Fold these 3 entries.
Entry 1:
Amino acid sequence: MAKKIQAIRGMNDTLPEQTPVWQKLESLIRQTVSSYGYSEIRMPIVESTHLFKRSIGEVTDIVEKEMYTFEDRNGDSLTLRPEGTASCVRAGNEHGLLYNQERRLWYTGPMFRHERPQKGRYRQFHQVGIEAFGIATPDIDAEVILLSARLWKALGIEQHVELQLNSLGSNEERNVYKAKLIEFLQVREDKLDEDSKRRMLTNPLRVLDSKNEAVQAILEDAPKLSDYFGDETAAHFAKVQAYLDAAGVKYVINERIVRGLDYYNRTVFEWVTSSLGSQGTVCAGGRYDGLVEQLGGKATPGVGFAMGLERIILMLETLELNDDVKGDVDIYSILVGEGTDIAGFKAAELIRDQLPHLKMMHHCGAGNFKKQIKRADKSGAKVALIIGESELEGGCVTIKDLQGNVEQQTVAIDSLVKVLPTYFA
Ligand code: ATP
Ligand code: MG
C-alpha cells in the first residue's frame, strides 16, 4: 500500500462532525457584526513580506520567528498572512476606502504562524477581525469592545470571559516612558532572562508581558506608563471606561497588557478565559492611529480586534455548549419495494422545492428496511419518510418520528408540505 500523506503539523482538518458548531459560531458572528453596521472585506491569504514587517514590527514574536515566508518563482518574498489588520489597511489604502471616510469593516479567514502546536495554538488558525477607520473619539473604542461582548452573550459564554483593559498612551508618551523603563531594567539586567535582556533595548514594553514569573516579580516596582499620560490620553481612556460602565460591560485594568504587535496606541484590550489553560486570550485588539500612514496612506485613525475562532470553539466544547447544535439532516427517506425508488426520488425533490429550509437526505443504493432505518438513525435525521408498496399504491407516505414520540402517521403525498413542518416547529 502506498504511504499515507498527512496534513502539515498544526494545520487541522475540520471534520463534518465539527462543522455544525463552526457554522453556528460563524453565523452568530455575521449577525453580530451586521447589527453594528460592519461590512465584510475579503483579502488574499498571501501578501508581500514587507507589509507585515513594516506593520507588526521587526522585533515581535510574529516577525522574528512565526511567519511562513517564502520566495515565489519570481524571487519575490511573500508571506502567508499571520493576521488580518495589515492586509485590511493595505487593501483600504490601495482602493481608497479610508482617507476622510468612516469605515467599519470585518473579515474572517485562516491565519498562519509557525508556533509550537498545542491546545488552542495552531499553525493554521482562524480569526474574525473587525476594523473601524476614520474615528478618533473613544466611543468607537467602546463600540468595538461592546460588539465582542454582545457576541459572548449570544454564545452564552459571557460569564467565562474577562475583559482586561489598558492604554498604551501616545507615541510621545510611550517614548518618554520607554527610556525610564530601560533605565529601570538596566539596573536589574542580571536578573532578567535572555528574552527580556534582548527586548529591553529593542522593544522594552514587551518585557512587561513576559511570561517569566521572576521577571514579573522584578516588574512590581517598575515605573508605570500611566504616570506619563498627558491630559488627552487620560481623558480618552477615562471616556472609554465611562462608555463601558454605561453599557454595563465589566472590565479590569491590566497595565501589563502591551499586545504583541507594534502598531497599537491608546486603548488596548484582551478578553481572557481561564477555561483554556495558558492559551487563554480569545480576542484581542485596540487602537492603531499611526498604522494607515505607516503603510503609505494618509493619516487615518483605526481601532479593531481579532478573535481566535479555534479557542472560542474549544470554550464551547469545554463548557458543553456545543450539544444543541443541529446536524446536517432533518428528513431521511426509506424506500422498500418495486417502484418506490422513483416515488421517493420525486417526493424528496418536492420537499426540497416546497420546504427548502429543511434538510432532506434521500436514501440511495436500495437495501432492506432494517438497513435503511439504520442509515436514517445514523444521519441524525429527526424523521424518516417511509414509502413501501402499500404507500405507493395509495399515493401516501408514512412519517416516523425518529427522535420524539409523535405517533407514526400515513399521509397523502400532497399534504406532506403541510404536515412535515409540524415536526420542526
Ligand atoms: P498569544 O499570546 O496567545 O500568542 P497573540 O497575542 O499572538 O496571542 P493576536 O496576534 O493578538 O494573538 O491574535 C488575536 C487572537 O488570535 C488571539 O487572542 C488568539 O485567540 C488567536 N490566536 C493567535 N495565535 C493563534 C494560534 N497560533 N492558534 C490559535 N489561535 C491563535
Ligand atoms: Mg502569539
Entry 2:
Amino acid sequence: MRRGPLAMNPDMQSNSSDLTPGFGGLRVVAFESRMAAEVAAMIERRGGVAIVAPAMREVPLEDNRAALDFGDRLLGNQSEFEVVIFMTGVGTRALFAAMETRHRRADLVAALAAITTVARGPKPIRAMRDLGFEPSIAVPEPNTWREVLSALAAQVELKGKRVAVQEYGVSNHELTAGLEARGARVTIVPVYRWTLPADRAPLRAALNAIASGAADVAIFTSSNQVTNVIQLADAEGIGAAVKQGIARMAVGSIGPVCSAQLRAYGLRVDFEPEHSKLGHLVKEAAAQAASILSARRATAVRIEACASPNPQRAPASNAPRSPLADHPMMKACRREPTPYTPIWLMRQAGRYMPEYRRVRERHDFLEMCRRPELSAEVTVTAVERLKVDAAIIFADILLPLIPMEVGLHFEKGDGPVIDRPIRTEADLERIPDVDVAALGFVADAIKLVHRAIGATTPLIGFAGAPFTLASYLIEGGSSRQYQATKTFMYTQPETWHRLMERLARVTADYLKMQIAAGADLVQIFDSWVGSLGPDDYRRFVLPHTASVIAAVPADVPVIHFGTVTGNLLELMREAGGDVLGLDWRVDLADAWARLNYSVAVQGNLDPIALFAGVSEIRTRAQAILDQAGGRPGHIFNLGHGILPETPVDHAIALVDAVHEMSAR
Ligand code: CP3
C-alpha cells in the first residue's frame, strides 16, 4: 500500500504536531524479532524504557520433521493411520504446507479421503475445504477434547486403531489419555510455523520482569507471540506469575486475532490501535498507559487475591459468601496475608489421641466412619484438643471402594485389605458403577460437624487421588514397591486409563457431595504418587488428577498432597490445586521458589520430630517458618500423617508454638 505524506506512520511525525502524552519513564515490553531495533526506538522516542525480547522465530517448512514424517507414513504402502484428528485450522494449513514440500496435494487428499478424518471445529473444517476435502466427522460445539472423543467414539470402534492427532503448539494430554483408554494407538503430529527464538535469554529476562512487577506496559503484535510468551512462561514454571504480572500491566494488542489469543489465555486487552500497525500501537500505548495503570493499581490488590492458578476449574458454586472466607486458613489458601500462620495436622483425629482410642475400643474403624455421630465426635474433639485452624472430617480415602464391592476391610495391624483386587480388564468390568449416595454417611457427618463448629472452624473434606486409590485396588492393600500397580500400567495402558477415568469420576462426585454438605475446602491425597518418575506421572496420572481438580468449584480451595514428590512438584502443580503439600524430604524454601510462589504450600515438619522434646520441636517449627519467610500462602502441617505413638502434648505444643512464633 502506498502511503501519502499525511498518512505517515505516527512515529515519523514531528513532535510539534503530535500532542499525545509520552510514557513518562514507564517500562514497556515488546516481543518483536525483525523489528526489535525499530520498536525500541519508537518506545524511547516517546519517553518509555524499552524492554524488547524477541518471542518468535519462523520455522522453515522443511524443518517440520513430525509433519514430513506423517506425510511419508500417510502415503506409505499401506496407510499407517486409520483416523486423523485435525485440531486447529492454522495447524492443518501448516501441516499441508510442510507435506507439500515433498508430496503432491492431490495424493495427500486422496489418502485422507480413504480414512476417517475428524475436524475439531469450524476452523479446521474451513482449512480442509480450502485444501480440497471434507472431514468425515465434524465435532460439535464447544469443540473441547471431550466432544472430540465422544463424537469419534460414537462412530468408530477405537480399539486397536492407529490415530494421528495434529497439534499446533499445545499438547492435549486428556485427549491422548482418552484415546488410549479406548484402545487406540496414538501418534502426535506437532506442527510448527513459528517457534521460540534460539536465544531465549532476553525473553526469559522479560518474563521475570513481568512476573516480579518490574514492567508496566506490554504490547503484542501477533497471536503467535502471545502463545510463545505464555508457553515459555509455563515451561519455566512461572506461567501463573507471568499472567498475574500481565494482569497488573497496561496491555495493548495489534488487532482482533491477537486480542482473541490473549483472551483465550484469560488475559485482558486494554487497547487496540485504530490501524493495525506497530507505530500506531506504540502511540496508543503512550497515550493511554498512565491512566490505565492508575485505575488498575487502585484495584490491584483485589485482582491479585482473586487470581486462581487453576483457570480451568469449574465455575464458582455461587454459594453465599461463607463467614469463614476470611479465616486465616482460607486466606492462606488464596495466598492472602494472615495475622499468623494457620496450622492443622494430617490424621489429627487418630490413635495417638486417648479420646479416639476410647471410642475405637467399642467400634470397628469402618463402623466409626459409617456412623455420622461417631465420626463427627472424633473430628470435633481433635480440633478442640489441639486448637488447630481446620477440622478434617473423620473418614478414609478408601471408603469409595466399599460400593465397588471389592471386599475392603481393615485388619488389625495390617491396615487395609482388598479381598478381590483388580488385575485384569475383566476385574475392572466386574466393578459396578458407583453412586456416591452410598457414602451419604460422610455427608451426614460433615453436616453434624458443621452444626457444631462450622461458624468458627473451616472443615476440610477429602478424597484419595486416582493413582493412590488405584494402587490399593491393584495391590490389594498397602505396598512398598507398587510392583503390581506399575506392571498393570506398563502392560495394560488402555485398561489403566479406563480404571483411572472411573476413579476420577467417582472421586469428583464424592468431593462435590462433601462440598454440598458443607466442606469449606478439600484435600486430595496422592500419598504414594512419589513412587513414579516424571514421565509416567505425566502420561498415566496427570490427566486424571487434573480432571478431578477441575471438577471442584473454583471458590473451594483444593490442597493437592503427596509424599516423596520432590521430583514431581512442577507436574503436580500443573495438574492443579490452590495449595501443594510438601513433605520434609524437600526444603520448603527451595520447593516454593521452584514453584515461583504460584501456589500456596502446606507442610512440612517430619512427623517424627514430634517424638523429640518440646524445645527441639519449637526449633524445627521455627526453621520451617523461617523458610516460608512470612510470605502469604503457607499452611503449617506435618509432611505426612501424625503417627499413633505421638505424645498428644507434643502435638499441642507444636500448634501453640506455630501460632505464637508466626504472630505478625
Ligand atoms: O486426618 C484425619 O484425621 C482424617 C481421617 C483420615 C483417616 N485416613 C483416618 C484413618 C484421613 C485423612 C485418612 C487418609 C488416608 N487413609 C490416607 C492418605 C493419607 C496418608 O496417610 O497418606 C491413606 C493412604 C489411607 C488408607 C488407610 N487408612 C491406611 C493405609 C490405614 C491403615 C494405616 C493406619 O494408619 O492405621 C487406614 C486406617 C485409618 N484411617 C485409621 C484412621 C484413624 C486407623 C484406623 C484405626 O483406628 O485402626
Entry 3:
Amino acid sequence: MKINQSELECVAVKPAQYPEPDKYEIAFAGRSNVGKSSLLNLITGRKALARVSGNPGKTRTINFYLCNGEFRIVDLPGYGYAKISRSESEKWGEMMENYLEHRDNLLKVIQLVDIRHKPSAQDVQMYDYLKYFGLSGVVVATKADKVSANEKQKNIKLIRETLGMDKTDIVIPVSALKKTGHDKLLETIEELLANAEN
Ligand code: GTP
Ligand code: MG
C-alpha cells in the first residue's frame, strides 16, 4: 500500500471533538520523543505533515490524519515526559483512556519503542494495557539507523522479551532518517484494514 493523500483532519483533547467514527483508525503510541510524528511523515511521504521536534512533549493533542480518504492514522500524545505537571499528566491519562477504551473504530495501536534501549517500565505498562483491550501486537522499533545490524537483532529480541510479546506479535525496525522499514509497516496496515473489512 501507498499513502498518496494525507491531511490533518482533526485535533482533539476530548471525545466531542473527535471526527465521526466512520472510518477505521490505527493509532501510534509511545513515549515522548520516540519518533511518532516522524514515522507518520515517513509513511505518508510528507516532510512536515506532523510536527517533529527535538523537544519532547511536542504533540499534546490527539491528532487525526485522514489517509487516502479511507482510514485514519492517529498520533497520540507521548508519555514519559518528565517536565509536565501532575495535573497535565492526569489530563493526559484521561485523554488516552477516553480514546483507547471507547473508540469502536480503533483497529490497532502501533506501539513505538526506541531500538537502542530496553523498553521502560512505562512502555511495558502501555503494552500490557493495549493487550488487555485487544489492541496490541504490532511494535515499531524506531531510530534503527542508530544501531548496527548485529545490535538490531539483539535489541529486537530484548524488546520482545521485555514487553512480553507473543510469537505472532511483530516488531518492525524503522528509520525515519534513512527512510527504511516503512514498506513493511504499510503492508501490515494494509493487512489490518483488509482483515477488518471481512
Ligand atoms: P512527541 O510529539 O514529543 O511525543 O515526540 P514524537 O514521538 O512525535 O517524536 P518526533 O517524531 O518529534 O521525533 C523526536 C526526535 O527524534 C526528533 O529530533 C527526530 O528528528 C528524531 N527522530 C525521529 N525518528 C528518527 C529516526 O528514525 N532516526 C533518527 N536518527 N532520529 C529520529
Ligand atoms: Mg509528536
